[in-house]
Amino acid sequence: MNHDEAVLSLARRAGFSVDWIDQTGRSQTVTPDRLRRLLEAMGLPCETGAEAADSIHRLEAIDAARPALVTARVGEPFALKAAVGASARFVREDGATFDVTLGEGSDGLALMRPVMEPGYHRLLVGDEETILAVAPQSGLSIVAAGGGRRMWGLAAQVYGLTRSGDGGIGDLGGVAALAEVAARAGADALALSPLHAGFTADPHHFGPYSPSSRLFLNPLNGDPDFLFGEERVAAASDVAGVSGVRARHERAALIDWPDAARAKLATLRALYDSFRDFELAEASPGRLAADFAAFRAEGGALLEEHARFETLHGARFAADAGQWSWRRWPEALRNPASGDVAAFAAEHADTVTFHVFLQWIADRSFAAAQKVARQAGMAIGLISDLAVGMDAGGSHAWGRQDDVLVGLSVGAPPDLFNADGQAWGLATFSPIALKKSGFAPFLATLRACMKNAGGVRIDHAMGLTRLWMVPENEGAENGAYLAYPADDMLRLVALESHRNRAVVVGEDLGTVPDGFRERLAATGIAGMRVLQFERDAARFYPPDYYPDDALAMTTTHDLPTTAGWWRGADIDLRAGIAGDQFGETAANDRATRAEDRSKLWAAFVAARVAEGAPPPQEEPDAAVDAAVSFLALTPSKLALVPLEDALGQTEQPNLPGTLDEHPNWRRRLPAPAPELLAVQAAKDRLASLNRRRDP
Fold first, then answer.
1. Which helix (H) or strand (E) covers residue 538, if one does?
2. What family is reported (predicted)?
């Protein structure tokens, strides 16, 4: 074959879709030149024919090797790379051992008999061991979590919650207070914005969907009151000299991330110094010291790597802003296993321990908030949010470089909504690394998100089967779809959902592959249906159109609130921003919105949640009331109302396509959520959701 043919062959073997269908139904073909850049970033060079041949041989060797982990479903036989008729020893997760003989499968593979117990078992064939991840037919579904009844919940931006003592950045103390009052009102779930770890040394980088690591938490969302009590935390704030600064930020309408973060971290540092000098210095560890030691031991190498990264990042970034990314550090520091990194960590051991301390507070805060939610009566409790990727300059990409496709960005191809496509600047897992490592990074990420929650929402869930990957610093049109081992990943999601008793929601909005929603449903993963999208050209769909196994919502963090949509505030906002990233003119958008308001109100009237003529554009309260009542009528087993809609707010949390033009991820509630939900309009909206409990 010629060179281009070799590149195409390598690309297909690596999982790239050379030929694909765009949203308009037209066939597209990725050029060899574009594929070469993508493959190079995957560590599969192919600039010459010899390089392409060598990369193909490497992939063939990986495919031929016995995998470290094989997935299967309970009660179903499955194929293995082993000799047909070989004697093997099956070691069940509980330690029970059985001798088995492998049967004959297809394509020369051996066949293992069905395993009836879900779990991580072992199969020994000679001196080789394979982990058998046997999943139940379905994870914990929303239907099962609620005992078959219809439930409702709220969705909240954690950073925007307010409480006395939060220092100007919403935290898990605010989550606990909101969960308790929502549960008393009848809620069974509280979905949260991502709590992933950011960059402690750079609070300017605060977008919750661009984390440094999804394995750890943002310490700015931790609430030390849970562990140390309000008085000791207040004393630490006084010692740090930031009490006045914290109080000022608590009164602000928008979060000043850099200044509020500095004050909050100063308080946490003073609290750590006190903890180190007293609890950790005691000859016989007390309750807190013992719990801290247990947390550190449980976190193991991954936690230590993250704490070392945070310490290194703080030092390098402070010395040279150009070294924000670890990829610009001195070469010896780019390798987390190097002697230079070990020496630095030893020299700065106290700071490393401080970052472990921050993770301890955040973790225990999360667990405490979930405990409050469940004890208050929620069937599910907190639902965490798993971002689709991570920053290539962050902790995970540094600590586990073989896991991550550094040099490629996740995005979306050009479509009807965005003619240029999207490149989100996020790195993600290598499908080759997932297979070679027995899916270790994927499992660690799932477990981190499920550890302290009753559920998890997987952002851009299509990434379980394919992702649009774009070479770094290039336009989205230069990308291609990269396949992921969907069968394996869905089985692992089901198994971890079962083991952690956590429901799973897959964000399946946008361009969805054929049959994907059905695959999610078969695994027990609920898809999403958003009121603003559930329509055709002529009408908005009635409540009974919504599937019962989906999550129904009025809106999302990336869309206008219901009040904002009714007012056209999003159109006005886009019109005031220079540039052509938003497509249509404001005049066209306003004309279309006027028609859509009439169509939505007609759907409300038909569903008997509204009557008469639509309210004026500038008076959206009746439309918000009707939207919440409309959601209550859907057969979906869980309906989620964003807190902004429960409160009738106009401003949306995030406006995609903007950076500084809109205060994305910065809005704070004007008062604690429990107080705001006590206002009659909010109480009425929550009360209307309780009709879902009726048979």
1. none
2. Belongs to the disproportionating enzyme family.
